[in-house]
Queue: 3 jobs
Job 1
Amino acid sequence: MDWTKLNMKEVTYFCKSHNKSYEVDFDNLTFSLQIDCLLMCFYYYKIDIFTIKDIQEFYKKMEIPKWKSEGIIKPSPSKIRKSLTYNFFNIKKNIQSIGDDCYKIIFIDTKLYEDDIKKGYQHNKIV
């Protein structure tokens, strides 16, 4: 994946704001909801093809803390695959497997992410 497509200041704000984000408290979401939000971020930045390794790399780069315990999340491929089958934001119908651990995003509504980022800029939380 081309990581340069992501605006890391915005993504960092969205994922690591620790209750300071306006719409999403990413750290306290279940893993499956975090994956849904991550796919929303990818799609917002025109990244529509991703792999399980891309998601693992994202968690490694962002150092997302574990929910209710010490350390950072290091998701296994099976945990990621399982999360991709859930249907919280109607993601399931909009994700297609296109190969071994490779997926294509058909469509994801990014309004939640867009709104949160706009509020972050409005309140000088993203600089």
Job 2
Amino acid sequence: MSNRFYVNEVQIFGNNEMFGYTYEELEKQGAEWTKDGTFREINITDPQALMDAVTKDTADYLKEVNCDYFDYEKHKDVHKDFEELKDSDILTTDKRSLINCLYDEDGQARDNAWLHLTWYVDERRVFTPFNLYQAIKNSVEVVKGKLTLKEGCIITAKMY
């Protein structure tokens, strides 16, 4: 069975995934971690700090997997310096990912392109902070450039 991290019932990272900054921030906000890497539901009191932690973890993960990876076409390990990375490195897993979301094999626009694009956003790490925002947007407001909890609203987090 896999553990999943949820915020307002939306899974944020992949199955069995938790990253350092987010782990520490959740602990600061009241998570009591068990030996099996889970915690009971807590209320998030500082949504900006959680967003910052998730964003840092996401950016670090993307940098790591896109700078050092195995090229299956060339059958060898590849290293790119950070300065060599392109937007397409973090947005796609192959050169036609977005095209395949929008068009079928015959080049016709998909009737259900929105569904394929939704899957695309959910599956791409670069959108993890956006997905977190989608999960909390009704409970927060932006004040002086920072996410703050709206009066009377709660944000819950748990991992089980």
Job 3
Amino acid sequence: MTYFKVFSIIWCIAMIGIKLLIHLIPGKWNEFQLNEVYTEEQPK
């Protein structure tokens, strides 16, 4: 397998896993996004 095939398989598994998390635990996912990803502080 080439580098790009391996990368695309890993990327696909990660994206499917994230979609499952969004649908299985929407409250915790929303809390994670609001508190960790989108902070009120500006990046330094």
